Amino acid sequence: MRELTLDEIEQVSGGGTIGDFAAEGGAIGSIIGAGIRGTISGAARGGITGAVLGGSFGAGFAAGSKLYEFLS
């Protein structure tokens, strides 16, 4: 039996770059949204905004990393 590669581990765990950045962005956005608005609605809106921004950053990061690996 062989060891799993990093790509295989990420596929099995269900995580990956985009999901990780979206989760972190959502958590940070929730805290900031709650701090600015002081309401649950502010926390929800901040969390949604943070998750979208984090996910888009993660997608760009993943695409850029793959492109860098391809060109190197």
TrEMBL record:
Source species of the chain: SAR86 cluster bacterium
Protein name: Bacteriocin
Lineage, opening ranks: Bacteria, Pseudomonadati, Pseudomonadota, Gammaproteobacteria, SAR86 cluster
